[in-house]
Amino acid sequence: MAPPAFSDIAKTSNDLLNKDFYHTAATKIDVKSKAPNGVSFNVKGTSAHEGPTSGSIEAKYADPTAGLTLTQAWTTANVLSTKLELDNNLAKGLNAEALTDFVPSSQKFGAKLNLHFKQPNFTGRAFFDVLKGPTANVDAVLGHEGFLVGAEAAYDVNKAAITKYSAAIGYSAPEYSAAITATNSLSVFAASYYHKVNSQVEAGAKATWDSKGSNNVGMELASKYRLDPTSFAKAKVNDRGIAALAYNVKLRPGVTVGLGVSLDTQNLNEAAHKVCISACTMD
Question: Given its phi and psi angles, is residue 133 left (phi above 0), alpha (psi -120 to 50 degrees) or beta?
């Protein structure tokens, strides 16, 4: 089995600490449908609570036997995007993506190439921005019996220099995981853990230190409790006394709604609290 990608080494703890807390996330609506000929459509809308609402309409055609997927999208920013995916065509375990963006109003054009390669005990990725720079971002992870070690680096061709690099080690098991990461050119260090206590309860924590900032270490603690098969509640608190609560319920297949609230426990009498609702996802 292939290990996770470099950005996912600490995914379980990061998801527990950040996902489904709707006061920090943009309000979204996602409507999906599929035509009889296999073409799927997806309409997305996002509101960050400040500024205009953004959205896109997307059409996707997939041919699983040929390992080919073609996706085209048009956004409210008037960007036309096309993505061509080849899965296991060029080599076993290799997924290649060619992406283009075109802005009709400014005649700007962008092109990117992404490569994802997975083998037992190895996952590697490469992201190339062909027209800007050009730049290359590569990362790789080795895994063995739950132990993980990975690194990433970015290179700018015009500057002829490595612009960033990171490293991480971790351990992953079905019921718990732990990771230590050093990002932003080894200047930001984080240690995190995740524990699935039982089928209903999950817990996790994360400590972060920016060596270029203050000497303080940021701490976060979170937990998740599954109320029943269709709903769950989450809670977290950080070292600054900011507490957050979230509730998610699946109303029916394809439709979910989430509620979130954030409280500044050190200033309960001040208007520093947030309440938010997440829109539905419909298939």
Answer: left
Q: In the structure encoding, which two tokens stand for residue 129, read together?
A: 């921005």
Residue-wise over 187-225: b if at least 16 C-beta within 10 A, else e? ebbbbbbbbbeeeeebbbbbbbebeeeeeeeeebbbbbe
The token pair at 211 is 């060596």
The beta-carbon contacts of 176-182 under 8 Å, at least 24 apart in sequence, are 177/10, 177/12, 177/13, 179/9, 179/10, 179/13, 179/148, 181/9, 181/10
3 state SS of 11: helix
Q: Binning pLDDT at 50, 70 and 90, where does residue 270 land?
A: low
Q: What pLDDT, on the 0 to 100 scale, is given for residue 214?
A: 81
Please report, to the nearest 10 degrees, the dihedral formed by the alpha carbons of residues 124, 174, 256, 204 taken in order: -90
Beta strands in 36-93 (DSSP E): 40-47, 54-63, 68-75, 80-87
pTM of the entire structure?
0.85
- Run of H or E residues at 278: strand 274-278
H/E segment holding residue 15: helix 11-18
Decide: helix, strand or coil at residue 148: strand
124 CB-near residues (< 8 Å, 6+ apart): 115, 116, 117, 118, 138, 139, 140, 141
So what's the pLDDT on residue 2?
A: 92
The pair of structure tokens assigned to 79 is: 């960007």
- Residue 57 or residue 259, greater confidence: 57
Contact in structure between 205 and 219 (CB atoms under 8 Å):
yes
